[in-house]
Amino acid sequence: MIQYEPIDKKAHNNQKAAAGLICLHVGMGGCVISLVGSMMHFIYQWSGCSPVAAVFCAVNESVYEHAKIMLFPILFWWCLAASITTDVVDAVNAATYAVYAALGLLLLGNSISESFETLAYDISLFVICIFFGQCVALLALTYRHSSCIPLFFLLLIVGMLFTFTFATPHWAYLFEEHRNKTYGLPANCSALPFGRFK
After folding, report:
1. Domain range spanning residue 136?
2. Rounded to two decimals, what is the model's pTM?
């Protein structure tokens, strides 16, 4: 005869509450990241082309600059999670998976849309990438795996984000401003129309 272990209802309820809290954090994070990232599209121009704003915000319409306004809010969101939780390693791992998943989907989505471009598609892709990254982060939190490798890749992408705005590689797919075929910071900040880069 098989002996069954009684279910510890208190532990089960604690696990359900923790899972609900994590899902809330991921969903709320997707909304906050989407709003903050959308605002970061315009902050560089609003700041009068401040070099500090250039590090974190979009300075042109290249794929890289759109990745930047998506990835920095994801990093800040998960740094906030790390600051309020005791498990910093899990938060760092979740941030890394969220960043790379969102970036991968953004690159895929942009390669699909090379022949057409609409504002609705760009905004939808931006939001979908963020929520996809958050879902992957949720999986990383669910199936915990402690390692230094995600931290290395997180530092690698942060280094890239801080460097490539000012020392922009001439790789057309990722870094070229597709409207005027330029790279990096605009030559004249005052020529930028409100809310749109040229």
Report:
1. 27-182
2. 0.76
